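Give me structure tokens for this 139-residue protein.
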Amino acid sequence: MSSKAKVINDENKEFEVLCMGPIGVLPSYQKKGIGSMLMNCSIEKARELGYKGIFIFGEPEYYKRFGFVNTIEYNIQTATGENFDAFMALELYEGSLGPVSGKFFASDSFEVTAEEVEKFEREFPHKEKHVTDTQLFRE
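Here you go.
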């Protein structure tokens, strides 16, 4: 899934980009090219729609194969001014992220209050949480 996001530079100029959720494939279907097919299709669709770049918070070793690089390459930080290995960007055509720099802001739809989370959790059917060795953890 991708959502609209933006990068805002020091002069308050906004650049519309996409933020992609990490690709997820059930473990029993991994290593069959499904994740790569999903990524390549998503990248091509983003190009067709005219976006400058795709941003992701994901496993660097996986996403580098599609051309993603650390956002430091474009002088882009998170909204709080951070940079870390899992914060990556993909230029959708040569030079498309060249003029883009500043702070990255994901869609407001990701902003939730503690009360909203609590309400959702109460209404959502109980599921047992599982952790697999393929999940990315950031401390």
